[in-house]
Design a protein that fits this description.
The protein has twelve helices and twelve strands. The protein is of the alpha/beta class and 307 residues long. It has two domains: 175 residues, 3-Layer(aba) Sandwich (Rossmann fold); 123 residues, N-(1-d-carboxylethyl)-l-norvaline Dehydrogenase, domain 2 (Orthogonal Bundle), CATH 1.10.1040.10. It is globular and about 50 Å long. It starts with a strand and ends in a 5-residue tail after the last helix. Bound molecules: pantoate.
Length: 307
């Protein structure tokens, strides 16, 4: 199987490094020529829960060089999904599948608009990774990766993916209800990401302070109300307890949004708390905490140039 991972951020590098241990042909596509060349030369260095190791990868900024791939895994930030899938078009042949392992909501829809929904597989991952430098990552925590079709259509093609992932030590499961998984992950990101980006705290610290704990609870409660109205069944019974448990389990993590703010990059706020704000307006459900978090993160983004 030829597999191309699009996006050489923390997650893209993590999956590329692991999948390079398989017997498949693995490529990493990054739009930045300099990054792609460096990765091709030096490979990917990993440290953290999986030890210190280096993986050799084929990397390029030119999709034409890779050619048709059986599986394309999208690991770019959600605001780059559309441009990433458009630039990945040369990789797609009849029967190619596109798997999104991104945070937030809206990626499946954006990819489907370009390639057709029958080719798209959704996914969520609880692997934790921090980008330290180009091609240098810390594997911060292990977790499951769960994939599935948004329309619960046949799971054809997915067991092959599961086999490849599992063989290289990545725990991958197949779900019949990916929507529920996407929302269950969204609610975790709603509680953690913006609040860490604003306060500069690591995940675990959010529950150590009364103020952040209260805000976290407010954001999660609002998002849960929206999920309920939309009749989304979450994979856990108690969302507040779950998000706090994730804070504990990933206590030392620098959330992806805090990493973005630290690097003065755009964040995925529109695809996380911003989604709750939009849906709240649509459904007439008040979401003041998510509005505030969204406004604050957007303010931080627009003042990067001042500091
Ligand atoms: O975006 C992230 O950082 C992660 O999804 C999570 C679960 C919040 C852990 O850091």
């Amino acid at each position: 199987m030829k597999i191309t991972i699009v996006g050489a951020g923390a997650m893209g590098c993590l999956f590329a490094a692991y999948l390079s241990k398989s017997k498949q042909e693995i490529w990493l596509l990054d739009k930045d020529k300099f990054n792609a060349a460096k990765l091709n030369q030096q490979g990917i260095f990993l440290e953290g829960v999986s030890g210190n190791w280096r993986a050799k990868v084929n990397s390029t900024a030119d999709a034409g060089l890779i050619g048709k791939s059986d599986l394309v895994i999208i690991c770019v930030k959600s605001y780059h999904t559309r441009s990433a899938i458009t630039s990945a078009k040369p990789l797609l042949a009849a029967g190619s599948k596109v798997l999104t392992l991104q945070n937030g909501l809206g990626n499946i829809e954006a990819i489907s608009e370009v390639v057709g929904s029958e080719s798209v597989i959704g996914g969520v991952t609880s692997e934790g990774a921090t980008l330290l430098d180009i091609g240098k990552i810390r594997h911060a925590g292990r977790g499951d990766t769960v994939i599935g079709r948004i329309d619960s259509r046949s799971s054809a093609g997915m067991s092959g993916i599961r086999e490849i992932f599992n063989k290289v030590g990545l725990n991958l499961k197949i779900s019949r209800d990916i929507k529920s998984l996407l929302w269950s992950k969204l609610i975790i990101n709603v509680g953690i990401n913006a609040l860490t980006a604003i306060t500069g705290l690591k995940n675990g610290k959010l529950i150590d302070y009364e103020g952040t704990r209260r805000i976290l609870r407010g954001a999660v409660t609002e998002a849960t109300r929206i999920a309920k109205r939309k009749r989304i069944k979450l994979i856990y019974d108690d969302p507040l307890a779950k998000v706090e448990a994730v804070c504990e389990a990933t206590a030392g993590n620098v959330s992806s949004m805090l990493q973005d703010v630290g690097r003065r990059k755009s964040t995925e706020i529109d695809f996380i708390n911003g989604v709750i704000v939009r849906l709240g307006q649509e459904l007439g459900i008040p979401v003041p905490v998510n509005s505030l978090l969204t406004d604050l993160v957007k303010t931080i983004e627009s003042t990067y140039h001042l500091t």
